[in-house]
Design brief:
The complex is a heterodimer of chains A (200) and B (201). Helices cover 53% and strands 22% of the residues of chain A. Chain A is of the alpha+beta class. In chain A, a hairpin with a 2-residue loop joins strand 4 and strand 5. In chain A, helix 4 crosses helix 5 and helix 8 packs across helix 9. The termini of chain A are far apart. Chain B contains 10 helices and 8 strands. The longest helix of chain B has 25 residues. The chains are: A alpha+beta (200), B alpha+beta (201). At the A-B interface, helix 3 and helix 5 of A face helix 4 and helix 6 of B.
């Protein structure tokens, strides 16, 4: 199903990611890979919908995934994650409660999925993996907190400029209305800011 | 440090209740965990952390009231109000050892159990199941934040006000109105008007 070299490059991405947080031996890494499942999805695949209990978290090796909920009939996007990031309906995964969110691919996507059951087995198997779990949870928490602080501390314009500087690739890859929702900026304002930026 | 427990029996109760939410903790384990902590007692209006300082403590309120806020263009926005049994600190600063973006300040005379970053590291390593407990506490913090963000985005000011006041009726007496309004992200005038509506019920 997967070309070997492609799988190898996916594995390398995962190792690079892990090395940011914890040192793992070759043997430990092989053990970790065995807990996960490589998977691929077409564009616009719904991975999770409200009412589902999330059983997977995805480490994305290529592609783009968004997470959103509905406020009346308006989509509110809370996450847009590209290769190198982790996504899933995190709170449902962690609590076992039904998700309030949709998780959907925006591009053809490849990922390593890890199931709730495997994560639990992994934690039980060694203190090392329990530690990785703690570090990853901390990381997930910090990303959420920092984003919240950015939303509070920066004006609409500042948020727009900061995002555009840090994510030049996403401007091409993500429909503008999604970016506007993610940044909590009105679509008209988003357009105006984009024109202003281009005019410079 | 070991007589921390003798000083205040309610400390045991709050700490035990808090930790039981995550895993089963025996009295001996609880005593061991508390041996990593210290008790701090401060006056009202004590600033525990200023913007720009690295927060070295994770605190659980045993008695009193502590708020966390961020200064945005000279006005303060309240992010958290912590009472008995709640945990409060500058999370990003504490976890990443970076200058705090927020202030943490007491609103009432406060007694808290505090854990320094170094002691936390020690406990994670030495306490049996320390990593597990650490992970579960962080998971709890994450889920709680995510939930409050979701409802903040989803609910109207009126719904936010009614939900909060119904769940925490005593806070109207304990916290200045302008702080509650800021915490709920409601304009002070609107908050005042809503308060009168509730009083008529």
């Amino acid at each position: 199903m997967y070309r070997m070299e492609y799988l190898r490059s996916m594995i390398n991405d995962l190792l690079t990611f892990l090395n940011r947080f914890i040192k793992v031996s070759g043997e430990e890494f092989a053990e970790l890979i065995a807990w996960t499942e490589p998977c691929q999805f077409a564009k616009k695949t719904l991975l999770t919908k409200p009412g589902d209990v999330e059983v997977h978290m995805y480490f994305i090796t290529s592609g783009l995934v968004r997470k959103y909920f509905l406020k009346k009939d308006q989509e509110i996007i809370t996450h847009i994650v590209k290769e190198g990031g982790i996504l899933g309906a995190g709170e449902s995964f962690l609590t076992g409660e039904p998700s309030k969110y949709f998780v959907e691919t925006l591009e053809p996507t490849t990922a390593f999925a890890i199931s709730k059951q495997k994560v639990e087995e992994m934690y039980r198997s060694s203190k090392k993996w329990e530690k990785l779990g703690r570090i990853m949870t901390t990381q997930y928490f910090l990303v959420q907190e920092m984003r919240l602080m950015d939303n509070i501390r920066y004006s609409t314009r500042e948020r727009f400029v900061k995002f555009m500087k840090e994510n030049t690739d996403l401007i091409q890859r993500v429909p503008q209305k999604y970016l506007a929702s993610y940044l909590n900026i009105k679509p008209e304002t988003f357009s105006r800011l984009k024109h202003l930026m281009n005019a410079k | 440090m070991t007589n921390l427990i003798d000083i205040n029996p309610s400390l045991i109760e709050y700490a035990h209740r808090y930790l039981q939410r995550f895993m089963t903790i025996t009295m001996d384990e609880l005593k061991m965990l508390l041996s990593y902590c210290e008790m701090r007692q401060v006056e009202k209006r004590t600033i525990l952390v200023k913007e720009g300082e690295v927060d070295n403590y994770l605190n659980m309120v045993v008695k009193g009231l502590v708020m966390k806020y961020v200064r945005v263009k000279k006005s303060d926005m309240i992010l958290q109000l912590a009472t008995e049994g709640h945990v409060i600190h500058s999370e990003i600063s504490f976890l990443t050892r970076s200058p705090s973006l927020v202030f943490v300040e007491t609103l009432e005379p406060t007694i808290m159990v505090s854990l320094t970053y170094d002691k936390m590291e020690e406990a994670l390593d030495k306490f049996p199941q320390g990593e597990r407990l650490g992970r579960l506490i962080l998971t709890g913090m994450y889920v709680k934040k995510e939930e409050s963000r979701y409802y903040r985005l989803l609910r109207s000011p009126r719904e936010r006000f009614l939900d909060y006041i119904n769940a925490h009726p005593h806070m109207l007496q304990r916290v200045p109105q302008k702080y509650l309004a800021s915490y709920l992200n409601i304009k002070p005038e609107t908050f005042s008007r809503m308060k009168h509506l509730v009083a008529k019920q």
